[in-house]
Amino acid sequence: MANSVSGDSVVDRVVRVIAAFPAGVTVLQLSELAERADLPLTTAHRLVRQLATHGLLETSPGGSVRLGLRLWELVNRNSPTLALRQAAMPFMEDIQHVLNQNVNLAVLDGWEALFVERLSRRGSVANRAQIAGRMAVHVSSAGLALMSHQPKHAQAEYLDQFADPAGKVSRDEVRAVLAEAANQGYAELAGVIDPDTWGIAVPVLDGQKRAVAAIGVVVPLREMRMQALVPALQTAARGIARRLAEGAG
């Protein structure tokens, strides 16, 4: 791909255009899109026009740009998380039916938990996890459950680079939490994101006992029932792992 004067390729610029849409925002004015993508207006206009011809973006006469249905189709049709979501959904629905609270499914991407599915009902507690949203490992029970069952070298690499932007958690504290989660088979966090909620998550383990996903719940502190929640989540995690293995076979 040819490079621009700034040295970035066409692929770089296309990715910046698509990534310029923040979470929860599907429509931007072309001028704002260009600014967010750090591109000249003329370059943004040309790329948007080309992407629109493929259905990846959609434009309107008023100058607004939105993500196209073709992009959604391609991502969902070929997403590596599709099999995971299909395997997990029946178990997530069962847990939600019993608890009537939020149920999350996450995978590890770098040093963050990436949430690929979420079920919630009216009246459930606040839950900051959003589908396609991310949370740092140390502020998410799902992130801790995932990291606690990664290979030792991956954990060491994570801890070596760890720094809490808020300055509230030290590296040694995170190391201890990961060790505890690995030992007990689940991770828990109380009041980290929202003071009145408790997050509990268990890993979905592959044949090498590494976490390929984490299933978790967010419940009110006052309704915390660890003796009931953990076994239910662990049963669900085993069921998800079994269905993934059957699909792979």
The shape is globular
How many structural domains in the coordinates? 2
Order of helices and strands: HEHHEEHHEEEHHHEEEH
- What class would the helix/strand composition place it in? alpha+beta
In the CATH scheme, the class of the largest domain would be: Alpha Beta
Q: What is the spatial order of strands in the main beta sheet? A: 6-5-4-9-8-7
Total helical elements: 9
What does this structure look like?
The protein is an alpha+beta fold and 249 residues long. It folds into 2 domains: 10-69, Winged helix-like DNA-binding domain superfamily/Winged helix DNA-binding domain (Arc Repressor Mutant, subunit A, Orthogonal Bundle), CATH 1.10.10.10; 78-248, 2-Layer Sandwich (Beta-Lactamase), CATH 3.30.450. 45% of the residues lie in helices and 21% in strands. It has helices spanning 10-19, 30-36, 41-53, 69-78, 82-99, 141-147, 152-161, 171-184, 226-248; strands at 27-29, 57-59, 64-67, 102-109, 112-119, 134-136, 187-190, 197-205, 211-220. Strands 6-5-4-9-8-7 form a 6-stranded antiparallel sheet, sandwiched between helices. A 3-stranded antiparallel sheet has the order 1-3-2. A hairpin with a 6-residue loop joins strand 7 and strand 8 (197-205). Helix 2 (30-36) crosses helix 3. 31% of the residues are buried. Keywords: DNA-binding, Transcription, Transcription regulation. Residues 70-246 form the IclR-ED domain. It holds the Pfam family HTH_IclR. This is Putative IclR family transcriptional regulator. Residues 8-69 form the HTH iclR-type domain.
